[in-house]
């Protein structure tokens, strides 16, 4: 382990976001009716919960947190250097 790894992890954790996603299917009273999928996304760091009823909303909710804090180009920088030994 070299001296720079803890610094890289600290930076990674500072720029990281954690989410909990819960999905459930609500059946309809009539058997002919299509069941509806619903859910929520919790942003762990802020404690905010976002309810949704369309699956595309998951991406929109998460993108809102990512775009507020960093560009997507910088979010997935490698943690470790490229060691070709």
What is the structure about, briefly put?
With 85 residues, this protein is an alpha+beta fold.
* Share of helix, binned: 25-40%
Unreliable segments of 5+ consecutive residues: 69-77
Cα(first) to Cα(last) distance is: 15 Å
Beta-strand percent range? 15-25%
Major sheet: size, sense and barrel closure?
A: 3 strands, antiparallel
Strand line-up across the major sheet: 1-2-3
Mean pLDDT: 76
Give the SSE order as H and E letters: HEEEHH
Structural class: alpha+beta
CA-atom Rg in angstroms: 19 Å
Task: Describe the overall structure.
Strands 1-2-3 form a three-stranded antiparallel sheet, covered by helices on one side. Mean pLDDT is 76; it is low at 69-77. By secondary structure, the protein is of the alpha+beta class. The relative contact order is 0.16. The chain has one domain (11-70). It has helices spanning 5-15, 56-69, 72-75, and strands spanning 19-26, 36-43, 48-52. 34% of the residues lie in helices and 25% in strands.
SSE layout and pairing:
Elements: H1 5-15, E1 19-26, E2 36-43, E3 48-52, H2 56-69, H3 72-75
Antiparallel strand pairs: 1-2, 2-3
Keywords, separated by commas or semicolons:
85 residues, alpha+beta, three-stranded antiparallel β-sheet, 3 helices, 34% helix, elongated
């Amino acid at each position: 382990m070299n001296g720079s790894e803890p610094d890289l992890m600290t930076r990674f954790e500072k720029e990281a976001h954690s989410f909990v996603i819960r999905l459930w299917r609500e059946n309809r009273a009539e058997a002919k009716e299509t069941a509806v999928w619903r859910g929520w996304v919790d942003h762990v760091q802020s404690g905010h919960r976002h309810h949704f009823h369309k699956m595309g909303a998951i991406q929109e909710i998460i993108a809102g947190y990512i775009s507020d804090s960093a560009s997507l180009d910088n979010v997935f920088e490698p943690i470790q250097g490229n060691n070709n030994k």
